[in-house]
């Protein structure tokens, strides 16, 4: 069964827009009326959120189902988007609302499962493409077989920021899925053969939203669990994972604080 199910999906306009949605929640006091950030960093892990709150002491602003944290170190031009949930639908909806607020540059950072045998817990990766094994991206990109791609220059800028911190992560694709408990051994073996580095739950959807809305996004991950061995090795709370998240955040903040090339 194809997704979307209706053949006219991509030729038909949406019945209401993210701007309409945002206006409603502004009117009921559940979205900011005056906040106009230029860039946003997605944050999924509580450990990273605690670090940012402790070091930046940002204000906490409700935005529909999540929270926005304008970063004082950027003059408020960059916000941390957090507490909106996990998975492609939640992340994509948050991104749509941020685009409606005027955000044009995004960095998606978080944990991912390691598929490549050389990756260990705490290693970082830079995402160059996302395999679309979730549902959201198919409502944004008409070609069901095309991968979802990040912005090239923003990805290069992010890699350069990591390099300035002494980090040179491998680059490669990620497998985005809605169903982590259905990551089968057959799929893992297949994507390993294809050279896919990681598996996670949001990136393909975010890349697809960025493509449709004509905004820029890049992504990077820290390995929090390893799927390359005979047994799954989860290390979500490991110190190496926490350090990797902080490194990604610092590079993301530096990348988005730089003035973009026209």
TrEMBL record:
All copies of domain Nucleoside phosphorylase, residue ranges: 61-231
CDD domains, per database record: NP-I_spr0068
Top-rank taxon, per record: Bacteria
GO molecular function: catalytic activity
GO biological process: nucleoside metabolic process
Annotated GO CC locations: cytosol
InterPro entries with a match to the protein in the record: Nucleoside_phosphorylase_d, Nucleoside_phosphorylase_sf
Alphabetized SUPFAM superfamilies for the sequence: Purine and uridine phosphorylases (SSF53167)
PANTHER family on file: AMP NUCLEOSIDASE, URIDINE PHOSPHORYLASE
Protein name per its UniProtKB record: Nucleoside phosphorylase domain-containing protein
Naturally occurring in which organism (per UniProt): Candidatus Chloroploca asiatica
